[in-house]
Design a protein that fits this description.
Elements (H helix, E strand, L loop, with lengths): L5 E10 L2 E11 L4 E5 L6 H9 L6 E6 L2 E2 L5 H6 L2 E4 L11 H16 L13 H13 L15 H14 L4 E5 L7 H18 L2 E5 L3 H7 L2 E6 L2 E6 L1 H6 L1 H6 L9
Parallel strand pairs: 3-8, 3-9, 6-7, 7-8
Antiparallel strand pairs: 1-2, 1-4, 4-5, 9-10
The protein binds adenosine-5'-triphosphate.
Adenosine-5'-triphosphate binds next to helix 1.
Length: about 260
Amino acid sequence: MSEPLLQVQDVRKNYGPIEVLHGVSLSVGKGEVFAIIGPNGAGKTTMFRVMTGEVGSNGGSIRFNGEDVTRLPAHERVRRGFGRTFQVARVFHDFTVLDNVIVAIEARRRHTKEPLGPWRRCAPSEEVRAEALALLADLKLDALAGQGARFLSHGDKKRLEFAIALAGRPTVLMLDEPTAGMSPSDRADIARLVSRIQQERGITVVMTEHDMDVVFGLANRIMVMNYGEVVATGTVDEVRADPKVREVYLGKEMISA
Ligand SMILES: Nc1ncnc2c1ncn2[C@@H]1O[C@H](COP(=O)(O)OP(=O)(O)OP(=O)(O)O)[C@@H](O)[C@H]1O
């Protein structure tokens, strides 16, 4: 069997004297949608930040695309194919929607040594602009291209963050609670978007998410965490039927089979 795209082995993480990840392992195959769930404080975001390289680990290893990336900083992992969105969308508020995407495309082209094309009076090349506009059209943001990013609605800001992430042509898209703070209709919209991106572009998705409808609708496999440990990993049906998982969520909104 070929090596998984992302393989995390026995990762440990301390904040000061306190260990918050106690040896977490997971593997994600190419093209999978893999969700990490668990109650508040379970360690999902920390696990995420360790995988993306935002914080270092205190033990264990992370392999991506056949390479040991454990010690690589976040920007080096981006170069190797990590795309990322955050719980609170990170975009350049003072830029237009279009310029946010242009900047991301130019950054990719510089890193991959793709030609940036001829610049005219400090403007991006037509090629870069066309790529940015196509991406915005794909994410139904083209009508807002000239709008200042700070004026976008929560849902549109998240779409723009997706566009920025996709501009880097990632192999794996890491989504930290992509529907956090959204209305039910925006949530459904983002879930459809993730599903479409995954299917059309064949991108692997790793996500944390509290909304179980979103998780069950999207994920091929789910890992459940509690107190910095893995409680269970499996398909939607396996996880829903697992008594250990039910115990973790006992008394909380969950997973009614
Ligand atoms: N920067 C930090 N410094 C110290 N402790 C931290 C830090 N970040 C997280 N923790 C602690 O690590 C543990 C795991 O937190 P983490 O945010 O990873 O959980 P989570 O599952 O993502 O929770 P939530 O669903 O609420 O976002 C918690 O006990 C938290 O208090």
